[in-house]
Amino acid sequence: MMKKILMSVALLTLFAMGGMAQEAVRLPQPDLSLGTTLTEALQKRRSDRMFQADKPVTDKQLSLLLWAACGINRPDKGLLTIPTAINAQDIEVYVCTAKGVSLYNPKANTLTPVTDQDIRLPLAERQENMATAPVFLLIVSDLSRFRSNAEHYGAMDAGYASQNICLMAAALGLKTVPRAMMNRKAVVEALGLKETQALELNHPIGY
Length: 207
Known about the structure:
This protein is an alpha+beta fold and 207 residues long. The protein is 33% helix and 22% strand. It has helices at 2-16, 38-44, 59-70, 120-124, 150-171, 184-191, and strands at 25-26, 72-74, 79-80, 91-97, 100-105, 110-115, 135-142, 175-176, 197-206.
């Protein structure tokens, strides 16, 4: 009887957390043959705040955006496309769409479902027009990976990821803008984040 009760509680917990029992989804391998040069991406980079709701970001584009944000570029050493203080690799990127939120796993190149809630409106907060973006990339820093100066290092590392997202979006012909505004309480509750997981920036992305 006790075993059945514990199993029921576990199932109810998973249901309440929006389907975390779902398996991770493998992303396409990033296509690194993209022809845009760094100088061209820098020329194209701009902040855009209006998005077409009916034109999605493809999985291939998403794979490149996430790889740019904090993917593995030296598989033999497990090192990232971005520098992080003391190589803490503290940056976590959540993919937020109408279908819910998933967490990017750089080493496996997968997305692990976190919740089936659409949190784009809490991310947009007062700028509700932003919520039409088909994808938000939410940058979080796990401050528990630092022994000191955690908030400083976390914000610094998030900035590197944000700039890479801006440049890759420009290279792909997509729009984005880095934002610190969001309904932090609602986002933390929806994702079940720990106190050491700091919400840093979010990027609405689309056309």
